[in-house]
Every structure is written in structure tokens, then in C-alpha cells.
Amino acid sequence: MFPTVRASFSGLGSDQRYAVLLDIVPVDNKRYRYAYHRSSWLVAGKADPPAPARLHIHPDSPFNGEQLKKQVVSFEKVKLTNNEMDKHGHQLVLNSMHRYQPRVHLVKWREGMMSNGAFLGDLESELFRTFIFPETVFTAVTAYQNQLITKLKIDSNPFAKGFRDSSRLTEFERETMETMLVEQQYIRPPLRPFDLEMASGSLTLEEKALLQARAHILGLRSPFPSPNLIG
Amino acid sequence: MFPTVRASFSGLGSDQRYAVLLDIVPVDNKRYRYAYHRSSWLVAGKADPPAPARLHIHPDSPFNGEQLKKQVVSFEKVKLTNNEMDKHGHQLVLNSMHRYQPRVHLVKWREGMMSNGAFLGDLESELFRTFIFPETVFTAVTAYQNQLITKLKIDSNPFAKGFRDSSRLTEFERETMETMLVEQQYIRPPLRPFDLEMASGSLTLEEKALLQARAHILGLRSPFPSPNLIG
DNA sequence: TACTTTTCACCTAGGTGCGAAGAT
DNA sequence: ATCTTCGCACCTAGGTGAAAAGTA
Predict the structure, then answer these.
(1) A60, A111, A116: residue with CB nearest B117
(2) How far apart are CA B225 and CA B137, in angstroms?
(3) How far is the CA of B117 from the C1' of C14 (A)?
(4) What span, in angstroms and rounded, lies between the C-alpha atoms of A212 and B65?
């Protein structure tokens, strides 16, 4: 998955241990199509049957709170596919032409959380907290619908170096990109700190520590309601 | 390191958790040289100052006892070097032209065994058991001293495929190799099960479980007192 | 002479977008 | 028309031994 989801954390207990997870859930129940002549996405009916939801546990888990406060957690190894039957089952399955919301989960580490080296696959009965950054919503595609996205990705991915000479962003295109990014700040819900839940007298210390956790999104944002990659 | 050290285990508690480690220690206090015309190793004086001892923890650690009984533990990622200052410090440092004994350690898993994701670096104050397979002794070199070793390694390593056509082992060489391997069985201490230590009344359950553990070496053995690789 | 380091061609392994071909 | 799949050239990244060059 590129751009990579990267998050930093604050407000958590130094002595606690946490798993950090990522999953990707549908934004709505719609299918989209791209109207090329209008350069915009249109609703094209109801969503296809959803793919099986999978959780990606960050391979450096468990982190201790100390680490997590200093270090950026980068989900570089997340792979996306539209094929449920893909080899290893370690990839997140999406439907093309649907909109998705990545989510980051901070989970209190529990012994036996892994069984045979594989995560159990759901968060039921775990103590956790979910962070959602609306500015990371994207549309899954099998081919880019927008030339600027193609160029942006060629410019910023070392594996696409072979295509750079013919596709570097022009001065004008860079400015267009900047403008779109700025516009995005208005269209989308702004970044805001998460509300601290009402304190309840019956919380354990571990629960209180989790409630004070904060996550901050880093790195590239999806620049517009526009294709991101599958593949 | 190739051939890869591979071990299986038996006799350990299903509910226990273990780290599996590998290190490589000097066999003696000697330096060797290779007498080419005699095709044999000769003592060439006292050993050079020993390189700093490093422990390689198997990256799949911790294993639970259940896994460990079914699954072969393969140290595919162990890297050897003769340069103490090598980049990451994740490699085992050996002196060329010295003889070495790989060792496998089975360590009772303890919370906090890892500190900041890096193993503490020694086994003091850990509950552990060491397995030594004398048939895996080898001499570290920077260049192979024996043509058959070269050919064996080219034949069995996918990354050396580019050299195969010109260096496949002939029928005669294969037989020579077989013969040397068989002779090795007599020259070297035979494989034998480890003696169960005298039972003491003051052992904890965890200690008893560790004492019953067995390890079994698998995979290629060093075919003769002959170079293995550094690099 | 004997050993070590460096550079090189040749591999494995796998991440890119392109464009042709296929599917609906 | 629109979207998807597949083979491809082009990359990154790094594991091989051969041979040349370096060291002592």
C-alpha cells in the first residue's frame, strides 16, 4: 500500500505493551465509476458483496509504551488485493471501485494474543482503541484514473524509477497538486485531537491508560477523492 | 551461513514458551593454515584475539512447546563476517583460519527478555540448555581451499546457479564426496541422545521441563574438516 | 607464498507502470 | 465503454563465486 500509513502515539503508559494494527473498512454501501470526461467519481449503484475483513498486525508488535512515544509506526508491509484467494492470505482484500477508510488500532498486549504465530483475526474480547483519520479515505482501483496520481506515484516510489524521465511532474502540475491538497483540507473533516471519553469510576488502570492514548497521522495523504492502488 | 543449521526438538512442555538461539564458539586456541600440496589443515600457531561473542536469536522466537515439537527450526538468516565493524552488528563475527563450533540454545521464555526489540546479548541469569553437535564443526575461511566444497556449494545454492554448468560434480566427485561423508561418521563423535541430568529434588517444574528437552540436528553437515564460508 | 579485499557478471526475488488482450 | 488481467521491460535489493588487486 502506497502512500504508507504512518502514525505516532502519545499519552500512553511507558510500562504497558501494545499491538498496533491496521484494517481497511468500506466508507459506504456504494459502487463508484469514474467519468473520464468530467474527471470526477459518480455513484454507480450499490456496493458489491464485501470482501472478508482482515486485520494486519504490525510485525514489530508488541511495542512497549516507551518505544511507541518516540517511534513512528509505519505500515510499509501492508499489501492490498482484490483477489480473495491470493496466496498467503496476509493481504487485505478490497473491492475495486469502492471507497475505503483505513483504521489504526491500539491494542493492549495480552499473552497468548498470537496463536501459532498468527493473529486471531478479530478484536473481540481485546482491550483496544481505534483511531480513524478521514483524510486517508481512498478509492480502490485496478488502474489509475488520473494522470497526476500516476506521476506522483512514479515520482515517489523507487521501484518506478524506470518511468521517471518521461513523467516527472511539471512545475504547473506540482502547483495543481499543491492546490488540490490545500482544497482537501477544507473538504474533509479537519485533523483534531480525539475526545477523551468520559471517565468512569469502574475503569481499570489499563483501561485508563488506553483512554489517554492519542494517535497522529503522518506521511502523504490521499490528495483527493481519487484512485489509490490495488495491486 | 550455508549449509544452514537446522534442528528439531522433542521432550518439552507443550504449554511452555522458548527462545531458540545460535552462537558459534572457538573449538580450540589454534590458528590453522592449509597445506595445499597435502590437501590438509595444519596448526599454524596460537589463535588470534577472539572476536566479540554474539548471540543470534531465532527471529521466530518465542516458540511454544507445541510448535517446537512439530516444526524444524532453521537458522537461515545467520550471517557470518570477519569484520567487527560490519554495518548492523547483527552478524556473528569469526576469525578466518580458525575452527568453530555452532551451538544451539533452548531458553525458557521470560517476559522482558527482549529490551527495545534487541536481545540482551548473553544468557546469564536465563534458564536455558545448550545443545552441541560436534559434526557441525567447521573452519572459517575467506576463500575455499577445496574444489569439491566449491562445487558442492554451487550445486546446492540457488544464488550460485550462474556457475553450475561449468562446475557440476562429476560422477566420480559425487562418490568421493559420499566417501568422505561416510568416513566423517567414524572420525567424529557419533550423534547420540543427550544424557538426562541427574534429577534433583529442588528443581522447579520449568527446570524439569527444560531438562527433558532433546534437540536433533538436521540438514547438511560439514563434510570434512574443511572450509566453510565467511562472507 | 598465502591469505584478504574489491569488483564484477550472473543469479534470485520481487515491486513498478505500460500496453495488449480479455471480460462484461 | 469501462474495467480487469497478464506478460513485459525496468527497476531495487541483495546472495553467489571468479578473478583481479591488495596486503604482509
Answers:
(1) A60
(2) 8
(3) 27
(4) 37
d(CA A231, C1' C13) / Å: 17
Q: Closest residue by Cα to the C1' atom of nucleotide D13? A: A159
Average of per-residue pLDDT across B206-220: 54
Q: Report the amino acid identity of residue B137.
A: V
Rounded CA gap, B222 and B228, in Å?
Answer: 7
What DSSP string runs through B36-75? TTTTEEEEEEEPPPPPPP--EE-TTPSEEHHHHHHS-EE-
The predicted model scores a pTM of 0.76
Residue written as grid cell 532453521: B74
Query: Which positions 35-64 of A are in contact with B (Cβ < 8 Å)?
Result: 60
Cβ-in-10-Å burial (0-12, 13-18, 19+) of B56 comes to buried
The per-residue pLDDT for range A172-183, each reduced to its tens digit, is 887 877 776 666
Which positions of strand C lie within 7 Å of protein CB atoms? 2-5, 9-19
What is the separation of C-alpha A15 from the centre of its chain, rounded to a whole number of angstroms?
27
CA B146 from chain centre, in angstroms, equals 21
CB A41 within 8 A of CB A192: no
